[in-house]
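Same chain as my last thread, 150 residues:
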Amino acid sequence: MGERRSHWSDERGSVLVLAIFIMALLLAAGMIMLRMSASETDIAYNTVWAEGSFYAAEAGIAIGFDQLGPTLTSDVAVAAAPVGNDYTRTTNLQFLGPTQGPNYSLGSGLPTYSNPGSFYFNQYRIAGTGTGPRNAQRQLEIQATFGPVQ
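reply #2:
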């Protein structure tokens, strides 16, 4: 009796098909991993740029503090200036007005003044803005009191 082989029972070439299928799966997994790596890199760079912008805004606040004084009774806008390589800071200082500080004491060992209405404290609003690469921007705003001012 002769052996009869079915056309579908021939297994020649099945290893090639299986190898191509496994390579396609590995290629897809590799592309997914590569995209995840690129996303993580973008997140890390954005974090660094945002933090640098925050520090630039903080530098703007420090510049505003340096401007405070007993004779400063008007708004001041400090020009933008570079901070580091890719960051800039701007500062806006707004005079909010004086407030009274009755019964103010200068501290232990120093004279104590209790004349209500003789001491004033100047109130200010200081806004600092820091900008960095790819439109990274942070804004800080504080209120400061300077005094006593007679």
